[in-house]
Amino acid sequence: MFFKKKKDEPKTEQIKKELLYRENIRVGCAPDTQENVIRQVGQMLVDSGYVDQPYVEAMLEREKSFSTFMGNGLALPHGVESAKKDIKASGIAVMIFPEGTQWGAEKANIVIGIAGVGEEHLQILAVIADKMLTPEATEQLISGDVDTVYNMLSAD
Hints:
- By secondary structure, the chain is of the alpha/beta class.
- Helix content is 38%, strand content 19%.
- It is built from six helices and five strands; from the N terminus they run αβααββββααα.
- It has helices at residues 13-16, 34-47, 54-65, 120-131, 135-143, 146-154, and strands at 25-26, 69-71, 74-75, 91-103, 106-115.
- Strands 1-4-5-3-2 form a five-stranded mixed beta sheet.
- β2 (69-71) and β3 form a beta hairpin.
- α2 (34-47) runs antiparallel to α3 (54-65).
- It is globular.
């Protein structure tokens, strides 16, 4: 995956979890409101045990302070700094909107909810940005099935 554990790291729940599970990938999503999309992707993080429920509200709060739309059809909603206490393990959840879904003044085709323990969210953001550099990569994700998305985002 994205991170290698160090030999001296304690065995915690965080180490046991993968960053992305196939169950946390939804392709072919119909457009919805930005708030509903954030709630859905956030709930996937909750249901997988990455975060506690209050983190979803923190994701909505973050969006009010600045847009998590990154360009190239990609939005990366995540919680505000004060919600770090609600993160149990680093993880992501993905929703793909082939037709796009309104994200402020933009259209997002790929929405990746992020929860990162400590400063890991910065590393996760950097890896995702690197994987999404080309329009071809974006198109491959938008038109791909669950396995395609999983393989693209979980490959080293």
